[in-house]
């Protein structure tokens, strides 16, 4: 698996887009069952605080 992260200026802020690529459907399903989606959501939700030094 690999991911591409894109940051785009948007007015007063920045839009971050993450696109994950998986070698096959089985890998995607296995990682999904392990909680990858929730983990990514939690990690991305912390980025504003990390970047602002909070």
Write the layout of secondary structure elements.
Elements: E1 2-10, E2 13-21, H1 25-33, H2 36-45, H3 47-52
Antiparallel strand pairs: 1-2
The helix/strand order is EEHHH
Based on secondary structure, the structural category is alpha+beta
Q: In one word, what is the shape? A: elongated
Mean pLDDT across all amino acids: 92
Quote the beta fraction. Answer: 25-35%
Q: Low-confidence parts lasting 5 or more residues at pLDDT below 50?
A: none
Helix-residue proportion:
40-55%
Structural description of this entry:
It is a single chain. The protein is of the alpha+beta class. 46% of the residues lie in helices and 33% in strands. It is built from three helices and two strands; from the N terminus they run E-E-H-H-H. It has a two-stranded antiparallel ribbon with strand order 1-2. The longest helix is centred in the last third of the chain and has 10 residues, at 36-45. The relative contact order is 0.15. The mean pLDDT is 92.
């Amino acid at each position: 698996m690999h991911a591409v992260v894109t940051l785009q200026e948007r007015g007063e802020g920045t839009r971050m887009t993450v696109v994950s690529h998986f070698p096959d459907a089985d890998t995607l399903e296995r990682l999904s069952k392990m909680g990858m989606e929730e983990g990514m959501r939690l990690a991305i939700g912390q980025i504003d605080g990390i970047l602002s030094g909070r």
